[in-house]
Amino acid sequence: MKKTMWKLTVLLLAVMMCVAFVGCTTEKENPPADGQTTEGTEGDKTTGETEGDKTTGETENEKEEEKEVSPEELVSDVVTKEEWMAAFSMEKFENVKADITVTMSGTINHQEFTYKQTQTTVICGNLLHLTQTTEGSESYLGQVREQYEMIGIALNMDAYFDMETKVMYQKNDQGEWETSTPSETVLTLCDFRSAFQAWRDQYEDMMFSEFQYNETSGSYCDSDQNLIWKFKDGRLKAMISTSKYDTSTFFATQRTVTSYTYGGQSVTLPEVK
């Protein structure tokens, strides 16, 4: 029972974080020129990236080739318990970009619908910048829009966060940047790292029960491959999850693909007048 409940919890967290922010397609704002900036530097100890990285032995060409491999094609390294724990530690995510694509299709109230959301989250130290675009059927988006209005966030997200002071920056109806204090729920949904502690702590349950390294797929996954992790050079590089929903009024299949890029990121907080 404990193992089953943990598996459901992991899937639920993945769904919550990757589907939470859906919105209408919007033109991305240029990053503000003024304000507070935190950026990665060459040789950043938190990312472990240096020119001619001795730990990986990769040349620049090899690194470029790795970037072109899709999350689906990437073959995971086999990791030890210590490497797994380290890959999910917060120190690994001090300077990182997460690219998330969610696709869903099915029926709602017996009407067919489609949905696609792309989301990019950039983290530099305590600063976080989240942008997203969404397209799909209004029959589904309308219901999700109502849910998120209830917790005080918009579906059309282009927001900055100072995670240390817990301040959120968004544009108002006049197009001017303003600040607010988001709820803990919003902070959790906006920060993809929120589930990492649970995954890190449940290593032994995962390794010795339902989740194993799959030689065929080159990944760590459950027996049904509904949740897949891929590691490279001591870091989490990709996560793929598949979920199915089947109720009297809602039937859908969802696929979420996440890739992680480490180092070289910067975030500038908007200037509020």
Write the SSE topology.
Blueprint: H1 2-19, E1 37-39, H2 60-67, H3 81-87, E2 95-108, E3 111-124, E4 127-136, H4 138-150, E5 158-162, E6 167-171, E7 177-180, H5 184-190, H6 196-201, H7 203-207, E8 212-214, E9 219-221, E10 227-232, E11 235-246, E12 250-262, E13 266-268
Antiparallel strand pairs: 1-13, 2-3, 2-12, 3-4, 4-5, 5-6, 6-7, 8-9, 9-10, 10-11, 11-12
Provide the structure class.
alpha+beta
Please compute the radius of gyration using only Cα atoms: 19 Å
- Provide the domain count: 1
> How does the overall form come out from the CA principal axes?
globular
Question: At the third CATH level, what is the topology name?
Answer: outer membrane lipoprotein receptor (LolB), chain A
Could you give the distance between the termini?
Answer: 54 Å
Supply the number of helical segments: 7
Portion in strands: 25-35%
**Known CATH architecture:** Clam
Q: What is the β-strand count?
A: 13
Q: What CATH first level would be assigned?
A: Mainly Beta
Order of helices and strands: HEHHEEEHEEEHHHEEEEEE
Q: On the 0-100 scale, what is the average pLDDT?
A: 75
